[in-house]
Design brief:
single chain; alpha+beta; five-stranded mixed β-sheet; 8 helices; about 20% helix
Length: about 300
């Protein structure tokens, strides 16, 4: 789905997993400064949106995800994972409950497979999950001056320490964006957003992970996993690795020297003394740090 904000002056379309929205609007570094220092608005309308209704929705999600959600208060935001039976991360959800429904935003292209899994886990419970990505979109605001209160037209608000996501109806996307810009938010593209995400060492599913990734390797054990809740798929791996304290790999930040024109791609080798010890995930050019990246490397690699 092509975003109407690609019609904004200077918009350059993104590619890869972020196709459908803007990479930048003419000045990626100025856009980064707005996101970091004042107020910025990022079009993330390419992300998937899942809506779950029914009186059993919170207890049901509590039973199938890594997060404790049965007592999630209306308006609160949580992060949760869905794991394979072997504990590998399959889905990452940021979600909120509005009192009548749970709204979750997920990586582009993953809403369909996630809905398929949710449908398979309904059994006799009173829940109705639906992929509403065609009807609703995500707008993200960041920065110390960014609004935290939902604008008119927002169906749900997901608040994190570093950003606020507004879920808005797609026909209202342009109008809500215009209202936020009129309030002082600078329109910023995915290049700017990704650069600040990488600099903050926040991993992204599919870009910084592979099919073997477990929560401990990404730092999600602190943000998306409740270690004392009841059983869920993959819990045995989570508990075993947590108790032993030895995940096989760890996420690291790479400050690149800039001698290469091209940034490393997902899966490029990270080597130490000629031996492959891991792979690069996402990479970007930061307005202060220059070229940076995240990588997943073997735990046995010395910290220094």
């Amino acid at each position: 789905m092509k975003s109407p904000l690609l019609a904004a002056p200077g918009a350059v379309p993104a590619d890869g997993p972020d196709s459908g929205v803007a990479a930048h609007y003419g000045d990626p570094y100025a856009e980064q400064r707005a996101l970091a220092g004042s107020a910025g608005l990022v079009d993330r309308s390419h992300r998937g949106v899942i809506r779950i209704t029914g009186p059993d929705r919170l207890s049901w999600l509590h039973s199938i995800t890594t997060q404790s959600l049965d007592k999630l208060a209306a308006g609160d935001t949580a992060e949760a994972l869905i794991l394979s039976p072997n504990g590998h991360v399959e889905h990452q959800l940021t979600l909120t409950d509005d009192g009548t429904a749970v709204w979750a935003q997920v990586e582009p292209g993953t809403a369909g497979p996630l809905l398929e899994f949710l449908e398979s886990m309904r059994f006799m419970l009173r829940v109705e999950p639906a992929d509403v990505s065609g009807d609703y979109a995500v707008l993200t605001v960041m920065g110390p001056g960014a609004p935290r209160d939902p604008p008119g037209g927002a169906a749900a608000t997901l608040r994190a320490a570093y950003q606020t996501d507004f879920v808005v109806a797609r026909p209202e996307l342009a109008d809500v964006s215009a209202g936020l810009q009129a309030g002082g938010a600078v329109l910023a593209g995915m290049w700017a957003y990704e650069a600040l995400r990488i600099a903050a060492h926040r991993p992204r599913l599919g870009l910084d992970t592979d099919h073997r990734t477990i929560p401990h390797e990404m730092g999600w054990i602190e943000t998306a996993v409740h270690l004392s809740k009841g059983c869920y798929r993959g819990q045995e791996t989570v508990a075993r690795v947590h108790n032993l304290g030895h995940p096989p790999r760890r996420l690291v930040f790479l400050h690149l020297d800039g001698s290469e024109d091209a940034l490393p791609g997902h899966g490029d080798a990270v080597e130490l003394d000629g031996t492959r010890v891991g792979f690069t995930g996402s990479a970007a050019r930061h307005y202060e740090l220059g070229p940076i990246a995240l990588a997943l490397i073997k735990r046995t690699v010395p910290v220094d």
